[in-house]
Specification:
By secondary structure, this protein is of the alpha+beta class. It has helices at about 25-35, 110-130, and strands spanning about 45-50, 60-65, 70-80, 85-90, 105-110, 130-140, 140-150, 155-160, 180-185. The strands form 2 sheets. The protein has a 5-stranded antiparallel β-sheet with strand order 1-2-3-4-5, with helices on one face. Strands 8-7-6-9 form a 4-stranded antiparallel β-sheet, with no helix packed on it. A hairpin with a 2-residue loop joins strand 6 (about 130-140) and strand 7. The chain starts with about 25 loop residues before the first helix and ends in a 21-residue tail after the last strand. The mean pLDDT is about 85.
């Protein structure tokens, strides 16, 4: 679909690779998903269409990332098999799925249009969730960063600079101390003009 940034089918022949061999059901699934995604009112995220290495399915995915720095916080993918889909959080570079209930994994069967609608609604729900970047400072420099879904405080990842880390205790994911600042990087809520963003679960309680 011209002008639609979601689930664009790239031409592999431009990179000297074999063209896609999508069948009629797969093409219908892609078109239905693109049509549904065109109506989304969410911040843009990277999305793609392809196949896993074993060519067992049509695969569509969305990547959550932090633009500053550009860092992928996690991929969500749906594998389409013609009459059913499997969808969930990507757990490795081969786009295998985490099949635990906590990851949001699901299976669904049905007509192509119904499966595309189910997957589109799932992707949209993920993309509307607020994502928060938390930062810890030492000597005015960021020594640790953590990312969470701000609606549930579910962690999305973390990093630290060992050369700047103070000598205080450190948890494997985040420091024990309260973070110094946070920024809402996704979601439709506006951060407040104060130390903590409006949806920050560690900020001052609001009565």
């Amino acid at each position: 679909m011209d002008g639609n940034p979601w689930f664009v089918v790239e031409d592999p022949e431009e990179d000297g690779e074999e063209p896609w061999d999508f069948d009629a059901r797969e093409l219908a699934f892609i078109e239905a998903l693109q049509t549904r995604a065109a109506s989304w009112r969410v911040d843009l995220a990277h999305s793609g269409v392809g196949r896993p290495e074993d060519d067992s399915s049509l695969m569509v995915w969305v990547s959550l990332s932090d633009g500053q720095p550009r860092l992928v916080l996690g991929d969500r993918a749906a594998h389409f098999y013609g009459t059913h889909v499997r969808a969930g959080s990507v757990r490795d570079q081969l786009f295998n799925l985490d099949e635990t209930p906590a990851s949001g994994f699901f299976r669904a069967s049905g007509p192509v249009e119904q499966l595309a609608e189910r997957c589109a609604a799932w992707f949209e729900a993920i993309l509307t969730r607020p994502v928060l970047r938390m930062e810890w400072l030492s000597a005015e420099k960021v020594y640790a960063t953590g990312w969470i879904f701000a609606d549930t405080a579910q962690p999305l990842g973390g990093s630290r600079d060992h050369t700047l880390t103070p000598t205080s205790r450190w948890n494997r994911r985040t420091p024990h101390s309260r973070h110094h600042r946070c920024t809402l990087i996704r979601g439709d809520a506006e951060p407040q003009p104060e130390l903590h963003a409006h949806l920050c679960p560690y900020g001052p309680r609001r009565r």
